[in-house]
From TrEMBL:
Biological pathway: Cofactor biosynthesis; Fe-Mo cofactor biosynthesis
Protein name per Swiss-Prot or TrEMBL: Nitrogenase iron-molybdenum cofactor biosynthesis protein NifE
Entry-linked Pfam families: Oxidored_nitro
Organism of provenance: Pseudaquabacterium inlustre
Domain Nitrogenase/oxidoreductase component: 46-449
Coiled-coil annotated residue ranges, if any: none
UniProt keyword tRNA-binding, yes or no: no
CDD domains: Nitrogenase_NifE_I
TM region positions: none
SUPFAM superfamilies named in the record: Helical backbone' metal receptor
Length: 485
């Protein structure tokens, strides 16, 4: 691992936005918060995968993977991050290095790939991702990107996050560091307003950002940049002129929020777009920070008026579902911000959360869960650090939960237990953010729970039923023969 990468990892781990991290000694802080992956013995994505996930939703730039074609093939379009215009991000670019490149180096091949992209696509920028193989053979992507920028007059951004550096979450932060080092602050917006905000850690999954934007538009609040869902290079480069930052997922990009506050004095808060109450609190906090930064105080009254209208409408629309879902139990296997933000939404729908995974959650996420469950003891009883598939199966089979909400990798556990399952992670096809998203989520849970298919699949197979009937008849016959005359 190069000295520069080691230094960047140490810098990422020294995170002032994490109370737990700041409570450690200096020596312990530099070790980081997560154990490094053991190749072949760990589930989940690598650092390269994390960096690609974090940055690929910037839709108008070319994302060039410097490595074997399998790295790009595995990471291409692995989230349903939607775009309102440009589609350059959906084209897979790779240097596709081979054995000869491993022997002689792949830097010339990388330079030629950058030139070809510039000539054929001409995007505003090219992001170049380092991978394990090219990092191990010593390719200096930072030098190549610097030379290409000078030669072609195009922003070529190195993203130094090879897979062996650590887990996916570290890759998220290394991708964010690339933005901080080479993108944010390099351009100026066409104009600014006292109502400009950045949304950080929002990936516009299935168009969720578009359910939030109309609410902000109604308040006159402008999203100067979204990092990175439906993002544009110029917007991200001029993000330093915003008046406030909203952090959606601190687990992935907290370093952007803390460093923007340090460099440009932009205050930030962590909020949630999931659930009626949390959506309202997020709007209030945005208004508060903007007023604090110089916006018209009348924004507060407009915010409360909008909240009153939207809350009444949302509660009325989910009323019939709340009656059908009351008392139903949910097992939530996800992580990060969703470990607490979705819990709030489920409780509003009348559901009981019997367990929520906190394996990928921060200390702040767990503190929010304690507030939601009412006490530390109650939260501890529902927080699951790590649950094996066997334990999930047993919990569902024994009807301790009526439905499981998780990512696609866990769905087969629920299906094997013949219990309802719904996708809550990034692969889903429905947007659950905002007031409108809350209604959609409740509708989808209701459909999954009350699907008549479950009654059918739980019935014994015809041959099993016939066999049971024969056994019962045989038992009755034996009992009759054994009875005294």
């Amino acid at each position: 691992m190069s000295a520069s990468l080691n230094a960047k990892i140490a810098e990422v781990f020294d995170e002032p936005g994490c109370d737990k991290n700041q409570g450690k000694s200096e020596k312990e802080r530099k070790k980081g918060c997560t154990k490094q992956l053991t190749p072949g013995a760990a589930a989940g994505g690598c650092a390269f995968d994390g960096a690609k996930i974090a940055l690929q939703p910037i839709v108008d730039v070319a994302h060039l993977v410097h490595g074997p074609i399998a790295c790009e093939g595995n990471s291409w379009d692995n989230r349903h991050s939607a775009s309102s215009g440009a589609s350059t991000y959906r084209t897979g670019f790779t240097t596709d290095i081979g054995e000869m490149d491993v022997i002689y180096g792949g830097e010339k091949r990388l330079f030629k790939a950058v030139r070809e992209i510039m000539e054929k696509v001409n995007p505003p920028a090219i992001f170049v991702y380092q991978t394990c193989v090219t990092a191990l053979i010593g390719d200096d992507i930072e030098a190549v990107c610097k030379r290409a920028t000078e030669k072609f007059g195009l922003s070529v951004i190195p993203v130094n996050a090879p897979g062996f550096a650590g887990p996916k979450n570290l890759g998220n932060k290394l991708g964010a560091e690339a933005l901080l080092d080479h993108v944010v602050g390099t351009l100026e917006p066409d104009f600014t307003t006292p109502y400009d905000i950045n949304i950080i850690g929002e990936y516009n999954l299935s168009g969720e950002l578009w359910q939030i934007k109309p609410l902000l538009d109604a308040l006159g609040v402008r999203i100067l940049s979204c990092i990175s869902g439906d993002g544009r290079y110029k917007e991200v480069a001029s993000a330093h002129r915003a008046k406030a930052n909203m952090m959606v997922c601190s687990k992935s990009m907290i370093n952007i929020a803390t460093k923007m506050e340090k460099r440009w004095g932009i205050p930030y808060f962590e909020g949630s777009f999931y659930g009626i109450g949390d959506m309202s609190e997020t709007l209030r906090e945005i208004a508060r920070l903007l007023i604090q930064a110089g916006a018209d105080p009348e924004l507060k009254a407009r915010t409360e008026a909008l909240i009153a209208v939207e809350e009444a409408r949302a509660w009325e629309r989910i009323r019939v579902y709340r009656e059908r879902l009351a008392g139903k139990k949910v097992l939530l296997i996800t992580g990060g911000v969703k470990s607490w933000s979705v819990v709030s939404a489920l409780q509003e729908a009348g559901l009981e959360v019997v367990g929520t995974s906190v394996k990928k959650s921060t200390k702040e996420d767990k503190d929010k869960l304690k507030a939601l469950f009412g006490s530390a003891e109650e939260a501890d009883a529902h927080m699951i650090d790590d649950m094996t598939p066997r334990q999930m199966y047993a919990m569902l089979r024994d009807a301790q939960a009526d439905i499981m909400l998780s990512g696609g990798r866990s769905q087969f556990v629920a299906l094997k237990a013949r219990m309802p399952w719904m996708d809550i992670n990034q692969e889903r096809h429905h947007a659950f953010a905002g007031y409108e998203g809350m209604v959609t989520m409740v509708e989808e849970i209701d459909k999954a729970l009350h699907n008549p298919m479950w009654a059918e699949v739980r019935k014994p197979a015809p041959w099993d039923a016939e066999d049971s009937l024969l056994k019962a008849q045989s038992a009755e016959q034996l009992a009759a023969e054994a009875a005294p005359a």
